[in-house]
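Job type: complex structure
Entries:
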Amino acid sequence: MSENEKEGSMILEVNDLHASVEDTPILRGLNLNVKPGEVHAIMGPNGSGKSTFANVIAGHEDYAVDSGSVLYNGIDLLDLSPEERACEGIFLAFQYPVSIPGISNAYFLRSALNAVRRYREESEVDAVDFLQLVRSKMALVGMDEKLLQRSVNDGFSGGEKKRNEILQMAVLDPKLAILDETDSGLDIDALRIVAEGVNALRGGDRSFIVVTHYQRLLDYIVPDHVHVLSQGQIVRSGDKTLAHELEREGYSWLDSGDKPKKSEADQKVQEAS
Amino acid sequence: MSEAEELQKLADKEYEFGFVTDVEADSIPPGLDEDTIREIVKRKGEPDWLLEFRLKAFRHWQTMEDPAWAKVKKNTVNYQDLIYYSAPKPKKQLDSLDEVDPELLETFEKLGISLEEQKRLSNVAVDAVFDSVSVATTFSDKLAELGIIFGSFSDAVKEHPDLIKKYLGSVVPYTDNFYSALNAAVFSDGSFCYIPKGVACPMELSTYFRINAAGTGQFERTLIVADEKSTVSYLEGCTAPMRDENQLHAAVVELVALEDATIKYSTVQNWYPGDADGVGGIYNFVTKRGLCKGDRSKISWTQVETGSAITWKYPSCILQGDDSIGEFYSVALTNNHQQADTGTKMVHLGKRTRSTIISKGISAGQGQNTYRGLVDVKKNAEDARNFSQCDSMLLGDRCGAHTFPYVEVRNPSAKVEHEATTSKIGEDQIFYCNQRGISTEDAISMIVNGFCKEVFSELPMEFAVEAQKLLAVSLEGSVG
């Protein structure tokens, strides 16, 4: 396939991951490998464990890892606190971004950037340099500069919140970005703007995991790989055409218990490997 | 580190200002009767009219009972065990700061209050009160050029008796409550400030209160009079050593704003709060009231209350002049076993009077935080307006927040609005910050500061920074 195929070059290796929420098992043996620079889409019906997976990777304490392992650039990710994971370059774009009244977006983002920079033993960014940086990134997501002085996500529209997530991503410059249902609640224009922002950040070694219920986001953010999650396991993987197939056929075949028929996409993957 | 561990670590941090200064004190033995009062008057060389004022108050106090409040638990204070007058023994008569006991200067230095003029960077005049007496006032001469009187209450009694006679007890009469009566009987010092007509005070005026001696009560009295068309901004700060007894601080603050005058009064209260088990700490029972006497006058209270074992105070405004304005901005934080019962009274007498109340209560540990407020619109207060907002934030599940907003309206044209919210500090908010690389400790501090922003923005700039730091320190170990 490519030079990324090489042994040991995975940015994320998830092996037989089991995780639960309040003692209810959600993930039941999830396996996933992501190489630097790849974009993976994880699709699946409600309740299949998509958001749980995103939160486990980010380290949310409500999600308990029962067994399995997650290696991130070869280190044990599960050993790290959420903030250490963030500082190591993992970024989660939230499905429901949280508001922090009274704290300006600019202050929050600069605090985050400097926390990450301190961790990486880089010098902190002063207000002037920060403003320059953030302005250049705001253009990426077509965000109004006024939003910098507003409280974090406080009173933001759905579209503004999601754009703000992408802005944060652009500023924090992660190695692995996870987009958790970033398309939910967005109209088509907002979706396009957000997707363009993400596409502008693609390239180099930055990897993405795009978690979504619907195929339409993937029309804009075209993935290298598509995975179908069902009952806490990845039950099918393919290339971008798998997403189109799911769009046509929905997820009902998952419930039927039938082995889904072999698709064009599966064949392509087989041919490639 | 998990949130709980983080908080535990912070909880173990100690009160920063708990040291004791070793100075020789000139005290009156413990106990309280008319002779004690005569002795205070004698030592301070006060005139007869003040002795009469004190004795009347004392006799009235004896008829009163120590109050109990629904939401506050306290140990009984034995008033006969207290020392009512303790002054650092002066080495000689003081003419300038150079002659202040270096021990005392060092004490205030340690507290971050530099009394030495050449070292001071900020544009703030300070009156430093140590136990029962004012030990130093800075910038007095410069202020005097503008006709501004700023200094110790004791000096004012001697130098400006007419002003004191006219205004002492005019806003908070000794009959007002148990502690105001006690204060009127035994108050030993405090600050007096007078801003003449048309003068805008060019610098912040500040009083710094320090309780040092053991077994003493501090009973200071502050009186600020802003004459017509004058403005003044005033700040008080306070700390005390760590002791395992409960020390009583029962102050009275009276503000008078005449026509078109504005008084802004800010408090950063950091009395010793007691230890993590609730032993010791200051009982902070304070009566603060401002009279908007003239038309278009304005009084604004801003308080950041992070210290004391018990805080009981309701800085209030009597809106007597037409179009007068009263404001109350408050942040009260209770951690460990601290209790705060605080709020305000806005009494609308004049026409088109307006009041604003913004109260932010933060409860952590096993702290109990009560907002108790009264908006009282009297019959003649046509078109009075009030807006109240009381927000509570809970950190952890062993603390409590309570809100008692009382409203009495006797004029149908009044418009009174009240909003209240209670929120738990969001784990989602903390996780969101964590996911962006921000530690839990910084996240909590950030979220709480955001919660208090409307109040902090009312503080003078440099004190706002102080208040934020203080809040961060006081919050340490807050969730468990």
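Summary: The mean pLDDT of chain B is 81. The longest helix of chain B spans residues 48-62.
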